[in-house]
Amino acid sequence: MREPAPAAARRRWDRQILRLAVPAFGALVAEPVYVLVDTAVVGHLGTPQLGGLALAGQLLLSVYALFIFLAYGTTAAVARLLGAGREADAARWGVQALLMALVVGVAAGGLLYGLADPLLRLLGGEGAVLTQARIYLHISLAGLPALMITLAGVGFLRGGLDMARPLKVAVFTAVGNLVLELVLIYGLGFGIGASAASTVAAQWAGAVLYVYWVLRAARPHVRSLRPDLAVLRRLLSDGGALVTRTAALQGAFVVAAAVAARTGLADLGAHQI
After folding, report:
1. In this structure, are residues 160 and 82 in contact, taking their beta carbons and an 8 Å threshold?
2. How far, in Å, CA of 208 to CA of 48, rounded?
3. Residue 44 CB neighbours (<10 A)
4. CB atoms near residue 76 (< 10 Å)
């Protein structure tokens, strides 16, 4: 008996959605995977190191989540423009998203570097935990521009229905991060700073690939890399509501980390795990 046409169509669309959604999800969890790998490795260094990672990692994940609109906003805009046959405008949007990502990453990194101690103390960091958190955060901030570029690059490729390359980059950088951490920490005896440095190296490796892919796609259409204020304003406008939502959500996680830090070092380490 033949399957009814509407049911067959639904099944076909379901398969298409899964084909797009699974790789897209894998690409967007890159930063949480970095922190997960760091947690697994740093956890063997000691409780103060794990506690420091918990506080610094929470700040980094919050910043990542706040600016995830670089991915979602770029995806929607590029998909809409490509669907309308406006390839040049889609390419221009991708380039502008990269520029905004670079500026946002540098600005946020500089701000967090200057406010590192007050923020970590506000979260309950003190003594050895504060020292370890400061080391991890200061080094990790060197990768923040790369992380923002990755978000924009993922958004651009995903807008063109290219889910495979972002997933490959996520897997490649996660494995590279793990291998480098194991060599530096277990092989050479370095501490929490090596964990952060490994993650930064992996983030920049991924960012370089995204910059190359976006600029290669834009080369036939874009003659200038100068900022386009109209596009940048639209990207910020589209991301405003998402930033507000994410800030409220991340606030709960930040408060949870702060409470754990104030109940004891072991509790903070357990909370991170």
Report:
1. yes
2. 34
3. 10
4. 15
CB atoms within 10 A of CB 193: 16
Tokens of 28: 């967007």
Question: What are 81's two structure tokens?
Answer: 């423009």
The number of residues making up the chain comes to: 273
CB-based contacts of 199, cutoff 8 Å, min separation 6: 34, 37, 38, 140, 143, 177, 181
What's the pTM? 0.84
Burial of 161 (0-12, 13-18, 19+ CB in 10 A): middle
Residue 190: DSSP 8-state: -
C-alpha distance across the termini of the chain, in Å: 52
Nearest one of 209, 103, 105 to 154, comparing CA atoms: 209
Per-residue pLDDT 10s for the chain (273 aa) are: 454 556 666 777 777 777 767 776 766 666 667 777 778 888 888 888 888 888 898 889 888 888 888 988 899 899 999 999 899 889 999 999 999 999 999 999 999 999 999 999 988 888 888 999 999 999 999 999 999 999 999 999 989 888 889 888 988 998 899 999 999 998 898 999 999 999 999 999 999 999 999 999 998 887 777 888 887 788 777 766 777 777 776 666 667 777 777 776 666 666 666
Measured over the CA atoms of residue 234, residue 218, residue 102 and residue 158, the dihedral's sign is positive
Q: What does the block give as tokens for 159?
A: 């807008």
CA distance 223 to 245: 36
Q: At what angle do helices 87-114 and 69-83 cross, to 10 degrees?
A: 170
Q: How far apart are CA 250 and CA 238, in angstroms?
A: 19
Nearest residue to 91 (alpha-carbon basis) of 76, 78, 72, 102: 78
Segments making up each domain of the chain, as ranges? 5-272
